[in-house]
Amino acid sequence: MTRIGLIEDNIEYRDNLAFFLRREGFDVAFESDGHAIDLTLAQHPCDLILLDLGLPYEDGLAIAQRLRAQQPALGIVMLTARGSLDERLSGMRDGADAYLVKPVDFRELMAVLKSLLRRLDIGAESTDKPAKMPPVWRLQPAQLHLVPPAGSPIKLTGREAKLLGHMVRSYPRAVARQVLVDSSDAALTPLDFRHLEVALSRLRKKIQDATGQGLILASRNEGYLFGAPIRLDADHV
After folding, report:
1. Which residues are CB-neighbours of 156 under 8 A, at least 6 positions away?
2. Domain interval for residue 163
3. Between the CA of residue 185 and those of 58, 158, 210, what are the distances in Å?
4. Domain count, the chain
5. What is the Cα–Cα distance from 181 to 189, expressed in whole angstroms?
6. Which residue among 73, 135, 217, 230 has the highest number of C-beta atoms inside a 10 angstrom radius?
7. 137-175 pLDDT per residue, tens
8. Same structural domain, 112 and 203
């Protein structure tokens, strides 16, 4: 049975999609609002994903780019209210196999899914695939290094390593802004919310410049989280 993952933050719309897909014989592998999506997809492998773009944790275009690089055979259908020509072209460039604008007629969606399944040679008998763990980032706080899955270590400041340490320990949940402010090292200039956002913005840019991924994400009404699997490097703590 073909397995589909739904990445959509509108719960009512997501529920309607899930109901329709199950009625049409698909296995809905997971339903997500985009939170820790790499880990979710590793735990619940699927053949296709339906991907919204306006998500609270990470823009859908960035998710599509990363997933396409990690899983070239994954079918990606963008389903979004962004309907301009430039946005549709961006979606296709960033990894989408198909781009549909909401509100979409379910008959059109089914036709697109069946066409994509034929193109990807995924049959109805498709079985569960073994989980493939996504690439893991490593934090080496003693060395002040953030090590991407591929490439050179990124040099951190003491404050950046401390902030990332909280995100590692909380992953995949967000860390409250107040926790990050209260944990500020007394030896450094005290943080307030404004200075915290500046510090995280600089860290995001540093990671973006080094790897092309801005993985410091703001979680709506919750705080901040790291947008990819990450762990403390036990050999370098």
Report:
1. 144, 145, 146, 164, 203, 206
2. 137-236
3. 29, 9, 26
4. 2
5. 11
6. 217
7. 899 999 999 999 888 999 999 989 999 999 998 877 788
8. no
